[in-house]
Every structure is written in structure tokens, then in C-alpha cells.
Amino acid sequence: MTKSNPKTRPARRRRRGAQILLLCASVFSLLGAGDPASRFNEIGHQMMCICGCNQILLECNHVGCPDSDGMRNELMAAVSRGDSDSLVEQSFVQKYGPTVLAAPTTQGFDRAAYIIPFAALFFGLGLVVLLVRSWKNRPAPAIADGLRPVRGAELEQFRDQARKDTDL
Amino acid sequence: MAEIGSFALLLALALSVYSFLAGIIALVFQNQAFQNQPSSLASTGTPAAFRAAIPSVADASFVATLRRGSERIGETARRAGIATFGAVFLAALILVICAFQDNFSIAYIFHHSNRDLPGPYKFAVLWSGQEGSLLFWSLLLAAYGFVLRLRYKTDPRLFAYASVVLAGVQIFFLLLLDFAARPFGLIEGSLRADGSGLNPLLQYPEMVIHPPMLYLGYVGFTVPFAFALGALIMKYPGEKWIHITRRWTMVTWAFLTCGVFLGAHWAYSVLGWGGYWGWDPVENASLMPWLTGTAFLHSVMMQEKRGMLKMWNMWLVFATFWLAILGTFLTRSGIISSVHAFAQSSIGEWFGWFLLITLAAFCFFFFKNKSHLRSEHKLESLLSRESSFLFNNLLFVILCIVVLLGTWFPKLTELVEEKKVTVSAPFYNREAIPIALLLLILTAVGPLLAWRKTSLESLKRNFMWPTIGAIVVAVFLMITPQSWGSVFGLRPWQDVSYFYSLMAIALSVLVMLTVASEFYRGGRVISKHTAQGMFASMVQLTHRNTRRYGGYIVHFGVVVVIIGFAGAAFNQDKEMEMKNGDKMTIGPYTLICRSSTEDDNANYFSQWALLDVFKDGKPVGTMSPERRFYHASQQTSTMPYIRSTLNDDLYLVFEGVNQDNGRPILKAHLNALVMWIWMGVWIMLIGTVLALVPNAPAQARVPAPARLKRTEAAPVTTGD
Fold first, then answer.
1. Cα dist. B535→A77, A90, B420, B538, B540 in Å?
2. pLDDT tens track for B185-240
3. B405 contacts on A by Cβ (under 8 Å)
4. For B438-457, what is each residue's pLDDT tens digit?
5. Domain ranges of chain A
6. Quick check: helix, strand or coil at residue B43?
């Protein structure tokens, strides 16, 4: 019988945790994916009506719209045929132009729309961490002669006392 | 009348120019008199040209004369600023009078009014078109300037600087009104008997108050910006300017909040598509300064309490002002297509130049005087209120970047790839929701962190019960049957929107519980020392630190709004052509068409249907959605009928009539939790008003520790 090395146990546990998370994520993403009604609803909310009303295709509400009914029928037919999401989107883009998609694609320059916010977030986080570090390393302000700075355990003691006194 | 209006605007321009120039001259000479040496002017932000013009003086009597002279000039500049308000007010009054008198010789009145327009909407004509709304903007700016200049004794020098900045902004708007977008321009050709009428979408009670609120918010941010720029130019010592502008900023923020949500409510009640936010560029334009303004309201506390983030705050207050102007630029330049932008005109260029000039001026003074903006304290721990504000600001700014990027991205792709793209709700949902959820976590954790440092142990202690409460609510929502309606039976694995909704609701509950625990713990301390009941203690606690506890109430309101937003994942809709007696079922509601009819009056022709409404088989009332055709403007407008409950809104739209058989076509939306949004806004406003109330003096006292026995016991105090 072989015993596992105690040093590798946490790593293995982490790996197993990551695998479970990945599995959960895949299950989540696949659930409900095959239902034609939910697919129609999902894809229909990713497209715009092209009549100029600036509405999402499934939310275009004006009577006599020359486009939305036809577009919805096309979408329903494509979903019923079992066309993949990307195929449906491509055929709509070919027919109506790229403005039919309600959001930028994930190709070419369009990718910038998705990358910039998260790049800015990570850049900002990095900046905050640098800032916090530089502030923490800044020397403490000078104290007048005769006064002793309170630090460490003594400072914690005073803080605990303050907390007890105020219950906050 | 038109001549008097035009003259009033020219006079206002002359007064503003005088207020601006005389204000600068007075400040330059005051600096000279105060410091008595030309070289020192460099450090006070005085332009080189002025420095060269002033001789070096040492004589005390000359300095006294210089000081008196500069004070007199400064006083005339202040009075000219006050008089500007009078002149702009006169111009606005004349335009309103002309609207009530149906003076169609004025092109603006002809295009935005008609004889049968109801009185309140004739008043609203002032801000219904491009020229009038610019006049209204100028009026509000002059009104803010009027109040500021009357209160100058608080700090005469700082107020003088702020007054000059305000006068500079005022000059820009008056130049527009006098030369580019003249509200008193006369109509060309023969005089018409009636006007073209007001846009039907604007003929709704909320449109009488939505634009003023929004403009009060937009324009109001000029005031904190003016103070900030003034403080930067004069290297204002200390943080007093922050104290002075705190109330201005909060009032302005409240107006902007009110304006944004009134706009959302108007869109919901009038546009008839069943939603309240369409991520239209014009809506985004109002959201961006709100986001940076909210970030500023948080980070400014760090400057007040700890003397930190001074440079950041300067940029935030500038960005808020700048984004407000950028929003106006977007609405008026026609550079980005929007469903409710003003007509394309040349004034977009004016705004473009103004934006560039303000950016250049701000950058110049910032880089010149940034050494004055160094932080005074160090950060002691990552687990502190300070760091939570840092992350909070980061997330607000990233949200603003998402909205800015989404708004401008179609234009960017046009420039880079020469193709057009659409950026609508799916993009914003994908990018903004995760960031907003992170922000909610911070809203929950932030108030539990102390300034300087918080121990992990105390964070765990304070955070445990709210977290357990939030988890219990989330599990409850997941296991309840879906037949209970709206958010019940929320299975996050069924759809990503359900997952976001569940997260938003759970985190909102977490925020509510942390806010409640803050009130409880503070109330318990007071109750222990005063023997009052818990509720009375909490009221006293709030009175004692209105800003902190008012802020918590605002947070409470925000999460109520978020719960309302989370309901959008459960919206349903159904469309049907209905003859008398036909039934439509949506969610728990059954609608039976009783009749449909038509009506005509001087202002509009209307078609409407009458429907009986049943909920779970029980009658709950009748609904009558309507569609109007306005005679003067020859435009159509829907008047949805909305039945609101805490659980959901039944939203009925009369979409039109089938031309073949004359039957009405009706669309029903069942929108979950929408009422929570409007309730949340009221709570936010109540919290803001409370935060503006001055603190009551502390009464409760705690026993002094043993070694302080001989001295007076310290009163209980609470920090923000």
C-alpha cells in the first residue's frame, strides 16, 4: 500500500477543486442549451431590429414595423432547422449587415470592446496595489520631542480598549 | 419681446465677461498685495503675463492701496456675477411668456409649441428644444453662481476663485446663446397661425420635472469643479474647500440621481417598449457623471479624514464636470446616433472646443501645482476603510469606462475599420454586471471596516450573521417553487441571467443586513448608556452622525434599486389581436377585452381599449392602454397602462389597429419587481436629505477609563 506524500496533498486538493469547478461551469453552460424556445429567446435578444427603432429584435414593439416580423420568422426557422448560433448570426450579418448584432463580435477590432474594460480593471488593481504598498512603506510622520510613538502590541491594546468602550 | 430677450442675453454675456476678467485682475492684484513680491506669484498660479505687468513693490502704503483696489475690483466682479443671474432670468422669463402668448414669430416657440398645448407643457417649452434647453442650462448655472456669490463670506478668496471659474463656464454658454443657438431668433417667411407643437413624447407630466432635475445635476457639478480648480490654482491650504463643497456635491448628486431615474420612469411610462433603460447614448451620458460623482462622494471622505487621494479627487471632480459637458456634446452634436438626441447642429463643434480648452486648462494647473496635492498620511492596512474606498473608486471608474467605451465604440470602429457596429444591452450586461456585483460586495464590506486598520477577527464577527442571512435568502429563493412567481424558484443553472439575478439579490440582502447591523450595534451602545429603547437609540445615533447613517440609508436604497433591476430576468411579454370578449393570459393575469373605442380633442386623436383584469381568477380592476395622434406635430405616441404591485407590473400597450378588421393589437408585459426601483430611489433621496442635516450634539457619555478618572469622560463619537 502506498501512502501519499503529505506535501503534495494540498496541491492535489486544489487541483481536484479546480476540476470540480470546471465541471460545474461546463454543466451550467450546457444546461438548457438545446431547447429551441430558449435558443430563439437567447439569440433574438442578441440581435437588433433593423428598421431604425434601435430596439432589440424581440423587444421591437411598433405595429407596422417592416422588418421585425420577417426577421423573427427567419430566426425561428433557423433555430428549428438546428442551425448553430454562429451560423444563424453569420447569415443575419450577411443579409442585414453587422449592425444587426446587438453587441460587437469577438473578432478583429471588436475584441477591444471586451478587452479594454478588463485590462483597465487589472491595470487599476495593479495600480491600487502599488499605491497601497508605497503608502505602507512611507515613513511615519515625525513626532514632537518627548512623545513616544505607540506601535505593535501596545497600539493593538489601545484599539481593543477603544472597541470595548464603544462596542463598535 | 424677442428684442428684449436677445438684449438680456447680450447683457448677461457682457456681465459674465466682466465678472471673469475683473475677477482675474482682482485675484492677481490681491496675490501681489498679500505676498508683496512678484516672484511669489509664480507659486500662486498667476499667469506670466500678469506677473510681468506688475512692478516689484515694497512700500506698505502702496500694498494697502493695491489691496483696497483689488478688493473693490473683486467686489464689482462679484456683483456683475450676481447681475448675470438677473439678466439670464429675464431672458428665460421672456421665452416662457412668449410660449404662453403663442408668439409664433419666434422660431423656437413656433417649433416647440402650439395654441392647444396645455399650460404646464407650455412652461416646459423652455427646455424642450436645443436653444431653450441651453438657455435653461445657462439660467441654472447663473442661479448656482448667484447663491455662491451671495455666500462668499464663508471664504472670500476661495469663493472669488470659484466665481471666476463659474464665470468662464457661463461665458461659453452665453456665447452659444448669443451667436450659435439663439432662442429669440425670428421665424423666416410669413407668420403662421399655429405652431408645430411639442414632441408628443414630451407631453407627459414627468417631462415637466425630469429635465430640470437632470440639468440641476449636470450644471451643479460645475460648482464643486469650480471650487476644486480654484483651490488647485491658489494652492489652498488644508481641506476646508472639501467641507465647503460637500453639501453642494451631495445636493447636486441628489438632483442627478433624481433626474436619471425620472428619465428611466418616463421611458418606462411613455415609450411603450416595456423597459426603463435602453443603454441609449443619451441615457449613458447621464449615467457617466453620476458614476464618477458617486466615486467622488466616497473618495472625498478620505481627503477629509486622512488627507489622502488629493490628486485623485481633483481628477474625479474634473471628470464628473467634463463628462456632464461631454453628455451635452453627445446630445447636441449628432456625432452618435440616439433615439432622443437633439437635431444635428454646428454647436457640437463649440462643445468640442470647450471640452478641449477645459481639459487643457485643468491639466496645466494640475501639473503646475500637483506638488501641493501630496497625501499627508500613510495607509496602515489593506483591511481598512481607506483601501475599501480605493477599490470602490476603481470599480466606479471601470464602470464609467465600460459605459464610455460602449457609447463611443460604434464611432471608433467606424474610424478604425470603416464599418458600423451596434453596442446595446448584451454588451453592457456582459461587461457591467460582473463589475457592479463586485461593487455590491464592497458596499457590504466597506461600512464594517474601520479607518486605518480592522482586525480580521472583528471583520469576521461583524460579517458572519449578515453572510449567513444572505446565504439563507439565496437558498430559499432557489428551493421555492417557480409557481410563486417573480423571483421565487430562481434556479441559477437554468440561465446566466438567473445566476446574475440570484447573486444581485443575495448581495443586496447582505448589504441590507450589514447596514441593519451597523444601526443595531450603534443603537445598542447608546441604549446601554442612556437606558433608551432601541429604536429611540437608533434615531439618536442617526441624528448624531447624519452623514454616516444617512449614507447607510442611501446604500439601503441602492440595493432596493438593484433588487428591482434583478427582476428583469423574469420579465415576460405577449402580443395579441383582440376582439371584444377575447382573453389573453400572462403569468397569473387574465385579460378580457371589453371594448375598444376612439376619441378626438383639440390636441390629439386617441384610440384605446378597455380590458378587465383578473389575477388568479379574481377580478382586480380594468385597464385602458391608449395610443394618441397629435394634430399639431402629426406624430403618434403610446400611453401604456401600468398596474404596479410589489411583486410585478402588468404593463399594457395599445400597439395599433389591424387595418383589415379594425381590431386592436395589444401587447402585455409582466415586469417583475419594477416598483422596487422607484421605491429604492425614494429611499436614496431620503438618505441624502438626512445626510445633509447637521449633526445633533452628543449627549451620551461613557464611563472614563480608570486612568482618566480625574478628567472629563469622553463623549461617544462615531466616525464616517
1. 62, 62, 59, 5, 9
2. 888 877 777 777 777 777 778 778 888 898 899 999 999 999 999 998 888 877 77
3. 113, 116-117
4. 999 999 988 888 777 777 77
5. 18-103, 108-139
6. helix
Distance, in Å, from the CA atom of B644 to the CA atom of B276, rounded to the nearest integer, reads: 14
Residue of A nearest to B518 (CA): A168
Give the DSSP H/E element, type plus range, for residue B619. Answer: strand B618-623
B686 belongs to a structural domain:
no
Nearest C-alpha of chain B: how many angstroms from A91? 16
B609-658 pLDDT, tens digit per residue, is: 999 999 988 999 999 998 888 887 777 778 889 999 998 999 999 888 88
Count of CB atoms situated within 10 Å of the CB of A33: 10
- Do residue B184 and residue B68 come from a single domain? yes
The amino acid that residue B572 corresponds to is: Q
Residue B319 has pLDDT above 90, yes or no: yes
- Segments forming the whole domain that contains residue B327: 204-376+388-421
pLDDT at A49 over 60: yes
Give yes or no: residues B304 and B209 share one domain. yes
Amino acid at B1: M
Question: Measured between beta carbons, which residues in chain B are less than 8 angstroms from residue A28?
Answer: 492-493, 496, 499
Judge whether B708 lies within some domain.
no
Cα separation of B224 and B707, whole Å?
45
B79-83, B242-246, B343-347, B526-530: range with lowest mean pLDDT: B343-347
Closest CA in chain B for residue A45:
B426
Q: Of A96, A57, A52, A108, which Cα lies nearest the Cα of B425?
A: A57
- Please check whether residues B117 and B233 belong to one and the same domain: no
Examine the domain organization and report whether B466 and B602 are in the same domain: no
**What pLDDT sits at residue B38?**
47
What pLDDT score does B15 carry?
94
- The distance from CA B157 to its chain's CA centroid, rounded to whole angstroms, is 29
Q: Are B580 and B593 in contact (CB under 8 A)?
A: yes
Q: Are A101 and B494 a contacting pair at CB < 8 A?
A: no
Which of B414, B400, B354 is closest to B168 using CA atoms?
A: B354
Kindly tell me the burial class for residue B22, based on how many C-beta atoms sit within 10 Å of its own C-beta (0-12, 13-18, 19 or more). Answer: buried
Residue A72: other Cβ atoms inside 10 A: 17
Residue B714 covered by a domain? no
Do the chains contact at A136 and B401, CB–CB below 8 Å? no
Question: Which residue from A99, A124, A135 is facing B421, i.e. has the nearest CB?
Answer: A99
Looking at domain A18-103, does it have CATH number 1.10.8? yes
Supply the pLDDT for residue A10. 59
The span from the CA of B491 to the CA of B501, in Å, is: 10
Q: Which three cell numbers stand for residue B42?
A: 509664480
The Cα–Cα gap between B684 and B96 comes to: 33
Q: What is the interface pTM, i.e. ipTM, of the complex? A: 0.74
- Identify the CA nearest to A163 among candidates B452, B231, B329: B452
Average pLDDT, chain B: 84
**B575: helix, strand or coil:** strand
As for how many domains chain B has, the answer is: 4
Question: Are B522 and A168 a contacting pair at CB < 8 A?
Answer: yes
Q: Half-sphere exposure of residue A42, counting CA atoms within 13 Å on the CB side?
A: 17
Residue A134 CB contacts under 8 Å (≥ 6 apart), including other chains: none
